[in-house]
Amino acid sequence: MSPPGKALANGTSARAARPARLELRWRLSLAIGLLLTAALAGAALVAVGNARVAVSREVDTSLRSATASLDLTLSLIRDLDDIEVERVLAKWVAGFTGARHLCVSLDTRSAPRDRCAFPEAPLGVPGWFVQGAEFSEPPVLREIPLTEKTMRVHLEADPRDELREAWVDVRSLLLVIGALAFAVNLCVFLTISFALRPLERLVRAMDQIGRGQRATELPRSGPPEVRLLSEKLGELEDRIARGREQVRSLHLRNLDLQEDERRMVARELHDEIGQHVTAIEMETIRVARMAPEEQVQREVRLQQLRASVAEIHRISRRLVGRLRPPSIESLGLVGALDGLLDRWREDHPDIALGAELDPGCDRMPGDRAVHLYRIVQESLSNAARHARAKTIGVRVMLEGAAVKLRVGDDGCGFDAQGSYRGYGLAGMRERAEALSGTFTVVSKAGAGTVIEAEFPIA
Ligand SMILES: Nc1ncnc2c1ncn2[C@@H]1O[C@H](COP(=O)(O)OP(=O)(O)OP(=O)(O)O)[C@@H](O)[C@H]1O
Ligand SMILES: [Mg+2]
């Protein structure tokens, strides 16, 4: 398994590149290895301490009982002659030939022999163990003065056998602990490796999502944490796909709107302005042909001409108002909104439209204010088209560094959680969120609709 960091580094995002670190399973393995080695060392120390006690107890007992036996023998042979003493002592010493924990020697020379000559360490026992478990028991020396010489009996502890036995026990214990430690570590290593394997597929899936493709490799198995991660990634992917789809359809809708707008302009030019221009043309011809005495009729015709010109003005103002972005820069947001509301009232005389506009909102820069303007415009348009409302209230307030908008109507309401084919609500939300703001719709069938948006003014 390649480390996830490496796989990410192959992806498109430079941010994903991270210096390669030790994989989690190796880290865990290392930590467990260190811990078990420390435990093993601790166990070895305890075992060596125990061995030391056992060896000293065993050897000490042997040395004491041999010393007691020697002292008893010496007290019994005190009155015997030299030959007898020598014989008894030789026999006594011979009785210890092959003794496990003692080295007993009889010395008749004038200078005592230098203790028993043991090899440095017992066969097969490591030096560190001997050093840890060995103890120094002082040798026992008894001098028996004879007529011509002095005999010496020399007793010395010999822990080698005992050390060897203790080592065999300690070695078995350490082997068992070592094998257990290895097994535990292997087990953890394999479990982690197996559990993290789906992460590779998760990383590949993220790469696919990042490239705008459908993730084909989302893991469905593995430990619950990975399954949860995969599930959440799937949800995220769905949300991204929905967002992309929304952007795409908004774009299409934008193009459609442009076309609609052009058609509307053409229609208005042709049907409305065209009619009046034709009428003006006809009227001017008629006025030009009138006889000087037709003064009264001429006045009537001229009145009609002026009315047609005024109508052309009105239509062209309406067209410009719809086509041109509102003149927020010159009027300010509040002025532009006032204009919008006035026009709206003219177009919908049967709906009572109340407004509360905070003059402080004019501080908002034009590029932001236009979004607020459009949100108000779309909210009003929705209320007029869908709500069948009697009353609508618009409130725009500056609160701190944020502007708060509320458009409420007492119309039929709708299910705000439902999905709709229109683009108005989505567009309003997009505008608010693009300005790091929030957008909420509260509505229920029969209970009117409240639209709220809030975003920073700068
Ligand atoms: N104030 C409202 N009262 C009642 N229903 C509403 C209101 N505002 C929106 N709706 C409902 O929500 C739907 C979605 O509105 P949205 O503005 O997104 O689209 P639209 O107005 O149908 O079309 P578009 O705005 O794209 O021209 C509407 O079709 C309508 O059913
Ligand atoms: Mg709409």
From TrEMBL:
Entry keyword annotation includes Transferase: yes
Matches recorded under Gene3D superfamilies: 1.20.5.1930, 6.10.340.10, Histidine kinase-like ATPase, C-terminal domain
GO molecular function, one term: ATP binding
Histidine kinase domain: residues covered: 264-458
Cellular component terms per the entry's GO annotation: membrane
Domain HAMP, first and last residues per copy: 193-245
Keywords of the record: ATP-binding, Kinase, Membrane, Nucleotide-binding, Phosphoprotein, Transferase, Transmembrane, Transmembrane helix, Two-component regulatory system
Transmembrane segment boundaries: 28-48, 173-196
Subcellular location: Membrane
EC number: 2.7.13.3
Catalytic activity reported: ATP + protein L-histidine = ADP + protein N-phospho-L-histidine
Cross-referenced SUPFAM superfamilies: ATPase domain of HSP90 chaperone/DNA topoisomerase II/histidine kinase
InterPro entries listed in its UniProt record: HAMP_dom, HATPase_C_sf, HATPase_dom, His_kinase_dom, Sensor_HK_TwoCompSys, Sig_transdc_His_kin_sub3_dim/P
PANTHER family assigned: NITRATE/NITRITE SENSOR PROTEIN NARX-RELATED (PTHR24421), NITRATE_NITRITE SENSOR PROTEIN NARQ (PTHR24421:SF10)
Official protein name in the record: histidine kinase
Higher taxonomy: Bacteria, Pseudomonadati, Pseudomonadota, Gammaproteobacteria, Nevskiales
